[in-house]
Write a structure and sequence with these properties.
8 strands, 3-stranded antiparallel beta sheet, alpha+beta, 5-stranded antiparallel beta sheet
Amino acid sequence: MSEEENAGGNEQGSGGVGAGRDVTAGRDIAGRDIVTSTTQVGLSERAVLRLVIVVGVLVFITAACFFSGGIAVGVGAFAAINREVNSSLPVAQSVQITLQKIEALPEGQNFRVEFTERQLSSYFKFILAPELGIEDGKLRVISADQIAIAGSTDILGQRRFVATFSINPESAEPLQLQNAAVQVVDAGPSSFGWVAVPTLLLGPVEDRINQRLVGNFQITAVSELLGAERGLEIHGIAGSR
């Protein structure tokens, strides 16, 4: 057999693949269909939905924490605390003199006294707050039966706080701590970034305020001043505590 015939035989052989010819590989080149598989990269629809729900819950909880202080203390308290009052040491000293005069009254004697918000704030800022370990102390009148104080104290890790007190005439402790919040994020003059805290933490402040601000007299009635300057009119009985 010649070399040409041998080469031709190889090209036509049943099992060979001849050089110089195009070869097309179909899906049945291995004698059966080739099985292909697809690998999914990422999360399934159910996992994505679960993730969205979890993130939504976390956002809600975070927002609730940041606004809980504002809700607990009340928007009115923040509005009052942010109100500008021209506090001064001489005004604070005048209030102290007035309280000393009330304490010097005969036991059982009725009295009436008016304190403007500026007077109350000055007394708290310059005299009472330093005794309580409170820096940058503020006191504001919210209504005839509620006041708010603010500042920073070691009790709360030197964070700014706002607390509201109810005024309860004829009570042994006329100033009762209602709610308190500390600032965790400084967001300006708003209730955002405040978290409510247990009032028990400010218990010593509540006790001291009742001892020093109210003195040893009994409050029988409180009304809000209706003049140009906000304040409180207090009726009481001397030496009744």
